[in-house]
Specification:
CATH topology of the largest domain: Thrombin, subunit H
Number of strands: 13
CATH architecture of the largest domain: Beta Barrel
Largest sheet: 6 strands, antiparallel, barrel
Structural class: alpha+beta
CATH class of the largest domain: Mainly Beta
Amino acid sequence: MEDIQLLETIEKYLSGELSDQERTEFDVIRQKSADIDQMVVEHKLFLNQMETYAKRKNITHTSQQVFSNLLANGEWAPIEAVGVPNKVIQLWSKYKKVIAIAASFGGFFAIFTSIIVMYLSPSLNGSQLLQLSKAVEVIKKNQQVQGHLLNEVKTKVPENAKLISGGSGFLIDTKGYIITNAHVLKGDGAIVINSKGQELNARIIYSDVTNDLALLKIEDKDYKQPKTIPYAIRRKISDLGEEIFTLGFPRNDNDIVYGKGYLSAQTGYEGDSSSYQIQINANPGYSGAPIFNSNGELIGVISTRQKLAEGVAFAVKSTEIIDVVNALKGNEKTKDINIKLPKFTSSASSNRKSQLDNLKNFMYSVKSFN
């Protein structure tokens, strides 16, 4: 398929002009080709930015009418614009490739609009990602729904503690070691809640901000240690297009949510080799949730999603969990910690319902406080 034809197909795909059969066939192509999938994502971002600019333009037009009226009445003095032509020249040099694509769809106006959008929207250059931790307001609302008002009923959050953030996590060792995202633990203390709603005290053992992974340990007399963990930590790179699913806590603390999708790229945002790009609906609260393949192997940890691209999320690769455990051994303060990562998957031949019934017992909601 030639580039122009491909772009036209993507345009029709995003605008809903393809028939059901054509859309199904194109979805298959997206799953098989990471490059085409990325083109769809990028073009949707472009269209969203065009729409945003159009809204801004309408506001600007209205403002200009108001200013014109003020000027006519002598109530406003114009301010001379400085430096805009130079900015446009710099943007032309930097974004020639994107502008060329825009030209195939809209000619000169699209070119001009692309320049303005890129100038007005710094989100194109690095602030596209949204961390998926829970805001403290959501955590408190969930507590109210469940009747667990902070410091008013029995809770293991310390008295007068201030909740900071929350997310999801999962066991990697039967002794109570839990992996989550580093950005979930914005406070210096934490508790975890299992899928039955039971709160347990936990201690923050290690945090790797660079790879966005953190390690907790349940330290609570009410914790019942399981005999085994039913999923292996995958030590190899997963395949493009592989079916995936997750379990996390984007809603209430004991209301575990299942989601499914597929692995859309073997690298993450801007080619990050330590993460995957995945096609899945991921809401705040999914940070720290595990990603499993169809065999029940753990292949990654959900961390972020793209703000302006529906269903595009990113997951830290499972190999980074192994690196975290190795880093503990090389740290003077944590070298005595003995973590045995699970190496076998016991639910590979089970149907999805049986897998979920088993796996949910090893998933935890995480709350961080100061």
